[in-house]
From TrEMBL:
Keywords: Transferase. It is an enzyme of class 2 (transferase). One of its GO terms (molecular function) is N-acetylneuraminate synthase activity. This is N-acetylneuraminate synthase. The keyword Transferase applies. It holds the Pfam family SAF.
Length: 348
């Protein structure tokens, strides 16, 4: 297990749900605050943003990803796109304070050394590492120096690369680490999700595990909760029709709320794994199960045969599983048809 803020995250705790605002504020602090409000409304545990300086993140000639071109509808450099999506450090300070006032955990993914230093300086509770930086060992080693919990996304990775990242952090004495399975397409096709890999990561690497979802809708993150995700992350937006690279693959507030409700419903239904009837079933048990009854009028002194027995509701009498204990016994009283036969009605 790991601890993020006041939340324990692990197999014996409820799923830690992160609403990924990312850059869906479009560089506007007012929209960022509205996203926080909607995250609170949806009932998530944390809201996460992305902190970066475009000059330190990308070269001027790096091209946009295909999904970014498709979603924005234009082709430009990554630098020009990202520059429009930056928030200043002062705005992030304001945003963190706003989250504290709203009593929701503020998280943000740093994409460069300077941004990591800044987030640490304002007291971020945990660091989220993007899938693109899973193999960025220098950045992992730098963030590990802060001695704070780390959540790794593993899109585009094989198991060995996740293990290398975990070993890097372990060598820096970081024990509070979670690894999220992820498919880095926006949106991700259902057949590309391979959700079982989430538990492969958890079990093979003995780590707190979860799922960062990029599929459309809420079905897959709810399924991840049913499979045992400790953490679920999902992109959300105020409006899917807004301009920007990630809006189309994000949930709107009402959808996010339904996702949270679905995950919590799944959690409440999982139970402790012990096969036992619930207290609520006791009354149904008596109605739905059957008891041994006489199939005809049986006179005192008669020997009970198999054909003298029938099995009918209600189930508050002798269970049908004891029918062999009655066959061959002598009735010590008259037994009417459909009357429940008890052990007391026959001789020992």
């Amino acid at each position: 297990m790991i601890k993020i803020g006041n939340r324990i995250v692990g197999n014996n705790s409820s799923c830690f749900i992160i609403a990924e605002a990312g850059v869906n504020h479009n560089g506007d602090i007012k929209l960022a605050k509205k996203l926080v409000d909607m995250a609170v409304y949806a009932g998530v545990d944390a809201v996460k943003f992305q902190t970066f300086k475009s000059e330190k993140l990308v070269t001027g000639y790096a091209q946009m990803a295909k999904y970014q071109k498709d979603n924005i509808g234009t082709e430009d450099s990554q630098f020009n796109m990202l520059k429009k999506l930056e928030l200043s450090y002062d705005e992030f300070k304001e945003l963190k304070k706003y989250c504290e006032d709203k009593e929701i955990i503020f998280l943000s993914t740093p994409f460069d050394f300077e941004s990591a230093d800044f987030l640490n300086s304002i007291g971020i509770e945990a660091f989220k590492i993007s899938s693109g930086d899973l193999t960025n060992i220098p950045l992992l080693e730098h963030i590990a120096e802060f001695k704070k919990p780390i959540i790794l996304s593993s899109g585009m990775a094989v198991l060995g690369e996740i293990e290398e990242a975990l070993m890097c952090l372990k060598n820096k004495d970081i024990e509070d680490v979670a690894a999220l399975h992820c498919t880095s397409n926006y949106p991700a096709a259902l057949e590309s999700v391979n959700l079982r890999a989430m538990n492969t990561i958890k079990e093979a690497l003995s780590v707190v595990g979860g799922y960062s979802d990029h599929t459309e809708g809420i079905t897959i993150p709810i399924a991840a909760a049913a499979l045992g995700a400790n953490i679920i992350e999902k992109h959300f937006t105020l409006d899917k029709n807004m301009d920007g690279p990630d809006h189309k693959a994000s949930l709107e507030p009402e959808e996010l709320k339904k996702m949270v409700e679905g995950i919590r419903n799944v959690e409440s239904s999982l139970g402790n794994g012990v096969k036992m009837f619930s207290e609520s079933e006791i009354s149904t048990m008596q109605v739905a199960r059957k008891s041994i009854v006489a199939s005809r009028n049986i006179n005192k002194g008669e020997i009970i045969k198999l054909e003298d027995l029938d099995y009918k509701r209600p189930g508050n009498g002798l269970s049908p599983k004891y029918y062999k204990n009655l066959i061959g016994k002598q009735a010590n009283k008259d037994i009417n048809k459909d009357e429940q036969i008890t052990f007391g009605a026959v001789e020992d």
